[in-house]
Amino acid sequence: MYAIATPTSQRFKPITFILMDGGTIASVVTLPIRPEDLTRTEPSRATVHQTPGRGVTGWLDNLGPGIPTVTLSGHTGWRYTAGAEGGVLDGFDSFDALNQLVAFDYHLAKQNAIDDGVDPAEVKLLFADTVDNFIWSVVPTQFVLRRSRSRPLLYQYNITLQAIETDIDWQAPQAPTNGNAVAGQASVAGSVDTLQSMVDGGVGGPLGSLGSLAGDLAQNAAGAEASGAAALARDIANAGINAFGSLLNIAAAGIDLQADALGKLSALLNIACVFSNSLSPAQTYENYSSLYGASNCSSTTGGSLPSPLAGQNVFALMVDDGSRPVSLTSGAVAGIQALVSSDPVLAPLSGQEAERYIDQIVSGVNL
């Protein structure tokens, strides 16, 4: 005699959609009837390349598992069943709740987060399949209603879901990240010392002036929260990188000057990286809700309140007043753009061209 185990019961293993908004559960819809078809597709990020030769061989680019998808189809029945909120729903009500959550509420919550200046990644639609033992953060790419003459009482659906995260406990880094500001400021200080040694060591002329300017600007921007100063420090560092890179292509410069220029180029490259990463100011969505107030008389019937900017010139408030922590002339802007867009390897600038652009930058930037 052999004991045969009873198959695992699926009675208490629901399939559920959960809308998460800012870490809290905003809405839940549990399918009253299991889908008639459910397909989970798990691709691989692998590409096979055929190679020339007489043998049938190839080589593989394998980047691991890909982002899976889920497609499900079924219906919501027609009898009255208990809903997730404790109410009683028939087939139409169940379908309407599912359609509202997946096709509308999820996208509305994303847009509301953007309008409020909140990271929209905090809004997630979770698909929990306890039958097949997985729960993913997904985005609905298609929601289809199907009605059939052979099944006139049923509201049938086809849903296609694209997974975003297969580990819902994994926390994505804040984007853009501010990084480690303390370490970034210390790193900038070291690069500034390296650039200052160029001037102290007697390396003058345009390159010395540009190195001194980059160092001063980086030192000022590292201790400030102004995004304009940080962006300008990064751009001038990139301009210096290309200027010193062009110098490395001049054989007549001599090996000593080339070695020194390579060290200063490394310092400028570090400044550019620090201001692009650890000292990059966080970006936020602009919130213009205060510009929109009540329409005429609507505030007396439960509409929006009057705008807090009523009586002010909102157009003037939206126009940039032009204040900057650092001022630049048009020549300085042109010089920065020219050096940043140059290619010191394939199309290095001549010494005269680089010197002209550097002079424009140094004379046109006022700290």
Please give a handful of descriptors for the protein shown.
single chain, 367 residues, alpha+beta, Elongation Factor Tu (Ef-tu), domain 3, 2 domains, 7-stranded antiparallel β-sheet, two-stranded antiparallel sheet, 8 helices, 13 strands, 23% strand, elongated
List the helices and strands and how they pair.
Elements: E1 15-21, E2 24-30, E3 37-41, E4 44-50, E5 58-65, E6 69-75, E7 81-82, E8 88-89, H1 91-115, E9 123-129, E10 134-148, E11 151-165, H2 181-200, H3 205-222, H4 227-247, H5 255-276, H6 314-318, E12 327-328, H7 330-341, H8 351-364, E13 365-366
Antiparallel strand pairs: 1-2, 1-9, 3-6, 4-5, 6-11, 7-8, 9-10, 10-11, 12-13
Helix pairs in contact: 2-3, 2-5, 3-4, 3-5, 3-8, 4-5, 4-7, 4-8, 7-8
Level of helix content? 25-40%
H/E series: EEEEEEEEHEEEHHHHHEHHE
Mean pLDDT: 77
**Largest β sheet strand count, sense and barrel closure:** 7 strands, antiparallel
Strand fraction: 15-25%
**Outline:** elongated
Number of helices: 8
Q: What's the domain count?
A: 2
Whole-Å distance between the termini?
91 Å
For the biggest β-sheet, the strand order reads 2-1-9-10-11-6-3
Please mark out the parts with pLDDT under 50 across 5 or more consecutive residues, or reply none.
Answer: none
Our Rg estimate from Cα atoms comes to 31 Å
SS-based structural class? Answer: alpha+beta
Count of β-strands: 13
